[in-house]
Amino acid sequence: MGTKQLAERALEQGGGIVRLAPNWVPRSFCIPGRRIKLHPDDYYALGGERGGIDERWFSSTTPADNGPLTALDEGLSFIVVQDGSSVEKVTLRDAVSELKGALIGDRLWDEYGRWPMYSKFFDNQSALPHHIHHRDEHAAAVGQLGKPEAYFFPPQANNHGGDFPYTFFGFQPHITKEQVRRCLVDFTKGDNRITTISQAYRLEPGTGWDVPPGVLHAPGSLCTYEPQRASDVFAMYQSVIDNRQVVPHELLWKDTPEDKMGDVGYLMSVIDWELNVDMRFAEKHFMAPRPVKPRKEMETEGYIENWICYKSDAFSAKELTVLPGRTVTIKDAAAYGFIMMQGHGTMNEWKIETPALIRYGQLTSDEFFVSETAAVDGVKITNLSDTDPLVMLKHLGPDNPDLDLEA
What we know:
This protein is α+β, with helices and mostly antiparallel strands. The chain contains 11 helices and 28 strands.
């Protein structure tokens, strides 16, 4: 069966909703926090040289950029088409290419010609290095897109806070460009101590942060749900983490054009200086959950839904809770992917459930992609538990019609 026929079959079989296989991604410079339900024996399933699996990507049409050992389909989500014991797969990227607006909606297909975002869990025992995602102008120099992103810290995935549940953003307001430049020059001399001129914020489960491109950030050790533009562009500006983990020098120059290699001035130009020294950074970029409509009205109908990522026009995200024993019909104006966080039930004809433990390569029923037609028509969700809430996180594309960025 060809790719288009397989994608059409999946969409028809699922009534406009397709099931996705778990999509695990390792990072050689990270230590897994072991909160993303992967079996303890499988965190190094790809071999020690690839590093531990500390990420799971959702609704991804973006390949991971993990160096020369990266598998061809690493980072890409696969749609599962199952008929009895027969299982076939097609990448979400290929399905979007073939089905176009029938899957993601004509608005997004006509403007982007692809699914333009993805989300992930990143789950690390320690903090990540102070790093940066390039703005469009710098990303374009290496054939990529700039990368805004956002964080949300799901309570269900944070039974412990890891070693350092604080995130550094930008620099202290009085810091000078020369001080930052000196840290970059000193990258190969040991610990360049760039976080000593930054400022950290304690992370709180159930809340999040907006992170525009051009902002240096060293994410803390909470397990993080991270919607973002469909890009894997970045550079690491910190040389040693927690006095024990060395960041490879080549990552300082990742996604730098060949003619700018060795030019510290170019690394400085990637930094959006005004954003990084903004005294009101927390006020502008912290995100507490925001109800989609009055809470009592939702509870009467059997659910609670909050915007959790809502400050970027490149993507958005919601947390949906269906109360125990209730059935609701939820409508959205655009296509979305989702990952189950708690509970079990049904969504239209699909069984949806939250697994306790997943083997590498095992299929699950916790991740799906909802076409725009199905989202607009409304999906019927039943929580089959009398006691446990059913909770999912929903990741949506750019310029969502339901989201008021000015609210």
